[in-house]
Structures are given as C-alpha cells and as structure tokens.
Amino acid sequence: MAKTQSIAERADALESQQMQDLNNRLVTKSLLYHLADGEQSLGNGFGQGTGKQLLMGEDPRLPQMPEKPTLMDFFKYRFAPAQQHLLQSARLARKNGLSGNMILACLLHDIAVSGFIRSDHGYWGAQMIEPYVDEEVSWAVRMHQCLRFFPDESVGYAYPESYISFFGADYEVDPYIVRDYEYARNHKWYMSARMICVNDLYSFDPNVVVELEEFEDVIGRHFKQPAEGLGNDNTPASHMWRTLRCPCNAL
Ligand SMILES: [Fe+2]
Ligand SMILES: [Fe+2]
Predict the structure, then answer these.
(1) Ligand 1 being an ion, which residues bring their Cβ within 5 A of it?
(2) Which of 111, 117, 142, 145 lies in disulfide reach of 125, CB 3.0 to 4.6 Å?
(3) Domains, the chain, ranges and CATH?
(4) For residue 90, which ligand has an atom nearest its CA?
C-alpha cells in the first residue's frame, strides 16, 4: 500500500513539475497524435473543467529555436536525431558525382520521415520544401515514394530486400502508387527521382558518422532560405514549419 502511494505521489509530483515547466498550461494534442495511438479522440479537448489555460506558442519541453530558424536549425532542434540515413545518402550522391540539386534532393528525400509525418512521406516532404527548392528537387522527392517499389534494371535498382521484411513478401502497393509510378516513368525528371532511389541507403554504415555541416554549402546554394526564417515567411508551406516548431498549439 505504502509503495502504491509513493508511486502515486511521485506521479503527482512529476505532473506538477511538468505543469510548472509549462507555466501551468495544459498541452492539447491534435487528433492525428491520438489516432496514432489507435484512439479516435481529442484527449482532453480544450481542457474544459480543468481551469487551465492551454499551451500556445513555444513549447518549453522542446529545444528552443532561434527567432528566424533555418533549415539546419530544424535539423538540429526538431527533426529526429537519427539523421544518418539522410546524411549518408547525400554523401553517396556526392560521391557518385550528382549535381548540387540532386545532392540536396537526396539530403531531403526523407525529410518527412525524420521531421514530420511518415505516412505518404514523399508527398509531405515535397510540400514542405517546394517553395524553397528547384521544381525538379521537390518533384523527385515526391516521386521517390512510388519509384521505391518498382525496380529499374537499367540503373541496377532492384526491389529493396528490406521491404520484404518490412511489409511482407505478398505486400502490394496501393493503386495511387501504381498510378504515380506510371506517370513518373514517362516524365522528363524520371531519372532524378530514380537517382534518389539509387542513392537511398538502407543499410548505411553505422561506423561512419556524417555531419550535417558537410552539406552546408549545398544547402546554401540550392535551398532558398527565407530571410525571415522558415515559418515566419509567407509561402504555401510556412504553416507546416510553424506546426513543426509548435506542434501542440491548441488551434
Ligand atoms: Fe523515402
Ligand atoms: Fe530513404
């Protein structure tokens, strides 16, 4: 009994500490975060009956971001720390002599997986970067999603073995993936999207650590960083960067 009490007390103490850290604000979560836990719910909704105000603006639990955040700031302060897949893919693209734009495309191809939403990651990732990169780059990021599932022997690209363990040997892609693949394979930028697949390193070397700074030059030349900071600008993608900065705004 005493033990149960002390656990409950500790939970209370932790909760009150968290509330203090949040300046006594209640954190609300979007439907999507609840759906991901299998709950069709808005959780505590708008906190009715709690007497609490809701968290809006900077989230003190997350790393503080600069006033005018750059792409590299988002890599550092928001994206998942496991970024070697992106960095090693970009390094391979550079080693294979691809253009600056294509090195950037490889660096950003899974930006939605590392930094936003995994589902339909090519489409989300393309939208995040579209206002800031050449059209070919975002097109390639969007289309690598469907091309991943289709081999192209002309460039030595086979169906990824890892997908058999990820999704099962009998997995069949959705019709929209087939549709987009058929559209992409006849497109003038087909090979750009295909080059992302070719340089998409699934079994990257765990002993090699590539730093983001290695691509500072490529980002500087090919990513049109808005002077006012990502999210503070006014593009069709600004709200995505703001949401990433403050993911628990109540509205
Ligand atoms: Fe991907
Ligand atoms: Fe990838």
Answers:
(1) 110
(2) 111
(3) 2-54 (no CATH), 71-232 (1.10.3210)
(4) 2
